[in-house]
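Is this the right way to post structure tokens for a design question? Let me know if I should format differently. Anyway, here goes:
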């Protein structure tokens, strides 16, 4: 199966938004998939995910999930930012 960049971006953003704030293993699975394929993403897509995490974090960090989920999303945000700094 082959996806073009736009299709891949749509899939990533959809999976990210579905998983954000969920209290299931899906959050860990999706963040791992995204990080494993981060080189395929444009910086704007990565920045969009960072903004969405920070928006939820500024409103009410508990919307990111339970304690373990919060740690996962905040760590994911740091990894995204680190990647953009390279």
């Amino acid at each position: 199966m082959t996806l073009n960049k736009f299709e891949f971006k749509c899939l990533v953003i959809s999976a990210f938004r579905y998983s954000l704030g969920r209290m299931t293993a899906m959050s860990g699975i999706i963040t791992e998939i995204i990080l494993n394929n981060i080189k395929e993403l444009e910086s704007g897509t990565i920045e969009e995910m960072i903004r969405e995490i920070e928006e939820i974090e500024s409103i009410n960090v508990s919307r990111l999930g339970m304690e373990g989920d919060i740690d996962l999303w905040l760590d994911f945000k740091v990894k995204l930012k680190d990647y953009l700094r390279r």
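Format looks fine. Someone answered above. Worth noting: The chain has a mean pLDDT of 95. The two ends are 30 Å apart (CA to CA).
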